[in-house]
Design brief:
Elements (H helix, E strand, L loop, with lengths): L1 H12 L3 H13 L1 H11 L7 E2 L9 E2 L7 H4 L6 H10 L5 E5 L5 H10 L4 E5 L3 H14 L4 E4 L2 E2 L4 E8 L6 E2 L9 E10 L1 H8 L6 E4 L5 H6 L2 H7 L2 E5 L4 H10 L2 E4 L15 E6 L3 H8 L10 H7 L5
Parallel strand pairs: 3-4, 3-10, 4-5, 6-9, 10-11
Antiparallel strand pairs: 1-2, 7-8, 7-9, 11-13, 12-13
Helix pairs in contact: 2-3, 5-6
Length: 310
């Protein structure tokens, strides 16, 4: 049986990218196929795999018990955000990954900002923290730090609802229930303003927020940071369009979907939006020019993926 599993893992790592991409797409849309393919995916959960293409090409990555599709897909599984990171992040910048999960975007950002840059990954679940730290060690990413707490509007302990899929967990304060719930635990929560003061964190150039419905709480607890440093922000909405837009307007920010001029209000309830200080409209215009969803073929991505800039 052990030999059979080893053979299966070897075969999957040699499947052409076009077939792997088709498998990932089918999993998204076909529940029966997803259940069947989970049996194969289980052979790779918790294992180190060398990424074969895209922004993380050549890096070693372990997704723990989360989505192994990140490990094998040729095209980006979060294309808007990955394209945004590629466009905005430059060597020497500081990136905050709020709701880092298992650290996929964090390791991409660590490569983009280079040795002189910084990546701070905020993640409250201990199992995810361990995976991120493992990936840091596996790739010798000395520019990346994990902060093991959630961010919100207040400081103190809070109830966190767990899910069978680690990336679906959320703070109970959102008033929602995750899919496939498995219980709850208590996690530490801090305002970003508090965290920066306590840990003497470097000021952020770009902040990514993916917190399953607690977006407004994170923004509320970051009032001083936003007022002082005016960072660019990528925010994943979870039917929080109106409330997020209201807070951003109070902070003097404009927002849109990358690659379009569509307002947050007119966007679907589960999309990534790009938020820019109104005095930095030049950056908004840059994001609106995005058109090509096959961006891993672009020149800078090719250079990064081959390790030419490391």
């Amino acid at each position: 049986m052990h030999t059979h599993k080893q053979l299966l893992r070897t075969l999957v790592t040699h499947i052409p990218h076009s077939i792997l991409d088709a498998i990932v797409r089918t999993r998204r849309n076909n529940a029966a196929f997803r259940r069947w393919s989970d049996n194969v995916a289980d052979q790779f959960r918790g294992r180190d795999v060398t990424i074969r293409a895209g922004l993380a090409k050549g890096l070693v990555f372990n997704s723990g018990h989360s989505n192994v599709g990140y490990t094998f897909a040729r095209s980006a599984l979060e294309p808007d955000t990955e394209l945004g990171l590629l466009t905005v992040l430059q060597p020497g910048m500081t990136f905050y990954d709020i709701g880092a999960n298992f650290g996929w975007l964090s390791i991409i950002a660590a490569r983009l900002v280079g040795a002189q840059g910084k990546v701070l990954s905020f993640e409250p679940l201990e199992t995810n923290v361990q995976i991120i730290e493992h990936n840091i060690r596996a790739n010798n990413l000395g520019n990346m730090t994990v902060l093991p707490f959630a961010l919100g509007a207040t400081d103190g302990p809070a109830s966190f609802l767990l899910s069978l899929q680690p990336s679906w967990g959320m703070l109970a304060a959102t008033g929602k229930q995750p899919a496939a719930p498995t219980g709850e635990t208590t996690v530490a929560v801090k305002q970003l303003d508090t965290a920066i003061r306590e840990y003497l964190l470097p000021s952020p150039h770009l902040i990514k927020i993916d917190v399953e419905g607690a977006e407004v709480d994170v923004l509320t607890g970051a009032a001083d940071v936003i007022a002082s440093y005016r960072p660019l922000m990528f925010i994943e909405l979870h039917d929080t369009n109106w409330t997020v837009m209201d807070v951003l307007q109070q902070y003097g920010y404009s927002a849109c979907l990358p690659g379009t001029s569509v307002s947050i209000i007119d966007a679907p309830g589960n999309v990534h939006v790009f938020a820019v200080p109104q005095e930095r409209e030049d950056r908004m215009n840059l994001l609106r020019t995005f058109q090509d969803p096959t961006f891993p073929q672009c020149a800078r991505c090719h250079q990064i993926g081959t390790g030419a800039d490391q």
